[in-house]
Predict the 3D structure of the following.
Amino acid sequence: MKKHTITAILCAAVALIAAAIAGTSFLEARKQTPIVKGPGVSEIKMLSDWFPGLKGSPGDTEVYILRGAKPGASMLVLGGTHPNEPSGHLAAVMLIERAQLPSGTLYVIPRANASGFTHNDAQEGAPQKFTIQTPAGPRVFRYGSRATNPIHQWPDPNVYIHASSGQTLSGSETRNLNRGYPGRPDGTLTERICYGIVQLIKQENITITVDLHEASPEYPVINAIVAHPKAMSLASDTVLGLEMQDIAIRLEPSPVNLRGLTHRELGDFTDTLPVLMETANASQGRLRGRTDEALVLTGKDKWYVRAARLGRLYVPYDEKGHPLDERVGRHLAGIQELAFSWTLSHEDQPLEFEGLPSYDDLMTDGLGAWLNPPSAPQS
Amino acid sequence: MLYIYLAILAMVLGLTLWVLFSTKKPSLQVTAAMVMVPLLLRLLLIK
């Protein structure tokens, strides 16, 4: 056998081994990490129960239902709309694992874009997962992509045209769940997920919908609640309540001409009161340095500290960073304050939460102390 | 559309393999092997 044929076989063998290792890692990302349901969960359904067009598709996802002891208002919480914004997913998981309701009903979708959890954004160097230590052992969570997996929805058009408004955006936005509302039953996978969520809201007559997000520290809409005009009064009361807990938060009106987002379309197309909440996540920012699990968990990044000193950020940033404990704490405090503000003005339709950690609890004890043990029965 | 994509991928992978086995330059062989990795993953619809 000639020398160059032997080296070609060797090179091909190395390529096959590399492809096998990388392929195994990518396929591993398609397995969902377990959520350990808590005592408040009454029922687990799938989004396809409200829109059968999703059944068997990568867009179908679990809906956890927590029914209160007494009737009242209802709330839908969307975590994982963007799976590279982990505080939204973790806050939803915490609701499933800890919350109990004296009154009202809570619907939680922890992986709103389940497909987005199965891959990473290209060229971002983001970790595929992150680990939170609990007293009973480590819990692993997926760090995904902002968008639906192109394996599940492809190809992207050159220009994405939002169906109901005609708004044009970059082609890749066609896989962004928070640009597809109110969705279409015969649209792309992303549009069908949006449509499924809208059907859930309509059929269950959801009172309040909360979409949990994170933003880059250099993005203006951060540590904020974005509210549809009809949810503005409730959001205003919530902001006041959070400020009284020393949690600084902005209130932003939902822009009329930015279409496809929950805080705009759910308010226009359904009877729910939609709000969107943002926290500060350095691991998705453009100015970040090394991108790894530590950055996801701690938010510590020297480049963001420097940017803050130069006045380039919209959120305070120092060497302490913005840990995931703080970001989840902000979301949970916001959700509880929304329910409290609603109940104050609607005593005949209460919505009450128990069993959740406060912002201070999470800052003191950390997330791990409040997550269920990994060995408990899993959903 | 998917099948056209896969056919193009298979063709490019075939050409890459042809280069890998026909060239006598080690640097080109290593380059061809590196190019094979993403092509294989895409052909198998993994990434």
